[in-house]
Amino acid sequence: VTLTTWLWGGFSISDPTLTRFFALHFILPFTIISMSSIHILLLHNEGSSNPLGTNSDIDKIPFHPYHSYKDLLMLTTLITILFMILSFYPDMMNDPENFSKANPLVTPQHIKPEWYFLFAYGILRSIPNKLGGTLALVMSVAILLSSPFTHTSNTRSMMFRPLMQLTFWTFTTTFIIITWAATKPVETPFTEIGQLASIMYFMFFISNPLLGLLENKISYYH
């Protein structure tokens, strides 16, 4: 039994597949809420980080009203923008393919997910093998969880780490390129661009701990 068959619950996409992914979409928001609550609790008890990574208890100020009003302003701004888009530009991020009449006998030439899943879809389709693409898709999200454990630099912030800043913005550019390539048809040169960008995406997480060790040596000798 392959991993793809196990995920599908059979040899093709059927009712078990839909049930499993529906359950995942139902459980995932509660998981995110739980993790966000833990994050806020730890932030309240331990405090946020600072560029030097030193104890900053003497500089702390009350959360209310200094931060609560700022958060309320940002929340109000975001909700206002959201309602303006929903009210006046509801189709701004919609795909023209969604306005075509559904035909069960004709498959659209280029099927793609919503824009926030495009980076994972771009990595999925960059590997011709079905099992390899599925593993790369899972790893593209799971590897994000490894970042706290692969941080090897003595400096917590990137403010004093120019090499890491360059690497980070390269990673950001790579992420945007993968997202852009995933919106294009599966043909040359978009396939090759997506494959190269996918390799660079995973290379960031490999080079991150090595770069931290290198910066530690450079700072030690200086």
UniProtKB/TrEMBL annotation:
Q: Does the keyword Transmembrane apply?
A: yes
Details of cofactor binding: Binds 2 heme groups non-covalently.
Checking Gene3D superfamilies in the record gives: Cytochrome Bc1 Complex, Chain C
Q: List membrane-spanning regions.
A: 20-43, 72-89, 163-181, 193-214
Which is one GO molecular function term here? metal ion binding
GO terms for cellular component: mitochondrial inner membrane
The UniProt entry's GO biological process terms, in alphabetical order, are: mitochondrial electron transport, ubiquinol to cytochrome c
- Which keywords does this chain's UniProt record carry? Electron transport, Heme, Iron, Membrane, Metal-binding, Mitochondrion, Mitochondrion inner membrane, Respiratory chain, Transmembrane, Transmembrane helix, Transport, Ubiquinone
Subcellular location, in the record's words? Mitochondrion inner membrane
* The UniProt record lists the keyword Transport: yes
- Tell me which cofactor or cofactors this protein depends on: heme b
How does it sit in the bilayer? Multi-pass membrane protein
Q: Which PANTHER family match?
A: CYTOCHROME B (PTHR19271:SF16)
- The name under which this protein is listed is Cytochrome b
